[in-house]
Amino acid sequence: MTSRSNGEPLVRLSGVNKWFGDLHVLQDIDLDIARGEVVVVIGPSGSGKSTLCRAINRLEPIEKGEITIDGDRLPDEGKQLARLRADVGMVFQSFNLFAHKTILENVTLGPIKVRKQSKADAEKRARELLDRVGVSAQADKYPAQLSGGQQQRVAIARALAMEPKVMLFDEPTSALDPEMINEVLDVMVGLAGDGMTMVVVTHEMGFARRAANRVVFMDGGRIVETAEPEAFFTNPQSDRAKDFLSKILTH
């Protein structure tokens, strides 16, 4: 995959606005994400975090503004959108694995169909990725035979198999039992360490502290504050962020 000059951001949101009916869920969002940067998006429920994440690969269309990936404007629809979307990996709250396909088949489907890889090449790479996320022994099983934490790690491997330029995570641990959360976060920390560009919507503040280059705090559809994790958690600048942190960090 060719990447453009390293000078420009890999992902750029300029003046992005989104409405659901009368509800203005994204308000004049400007955000640049550099190559290899890990940006964690936090904020109260209903602040627009997930919508922001989903707008980056146009799962949510925007009404106003522009989003570019590696210098290319996100098209509205059609083959160009499919091609650009293939550069953007996405991991959701729910694992969205195909129940009737094995774990190996789930991971190889995209590379074979979209990237036109041979079955042998796709399977070799899939096994490497399943090993990397710690579920190589599960390759021939079906999703229902795996724990939630294992399924989510398969979903990460499936996204990585497309060799995306950027990975989006929309609350990837919120549907998991507490003891499974760390096994997924550990994989994500490893990815961050490998230099993967990531946008992560999460309530896991420990992950934000460990792996983020930057924390983006949203409230009411706006970016209220953006800072390095240590600065944000120890010395938030806005009253809204102070209030939010006082509620979540005391529990």
UniProtKB/TrEMBL annotation:
Location, primary (coarse class): membrane
Any single Gene Ontology cellular-component annotation: plasma membrane
Enzyme class: translocase
Domain ABC transporter residue range list: 11-245
GO molecular function annotation: ATP binding; ATP hydrolysis activity; ATPase-coupled polar amino acid-transporter activity
Catalytic activity as recorded in UniProt: a polar amino acid(out) + ATP + H2O = a polar amino acid(in) + ADP + phosphate + H(+)
E.C. numbers: 7.4.2.1
Family in the record: Belongs to the ABC transporter superfamily.
Protein name (database record): ABC-type polar-amino-acid transporter
Biological classification of the source: Bacteria, Bacillati, Actinomycetota, Actinomycetes, Geodermatophilales
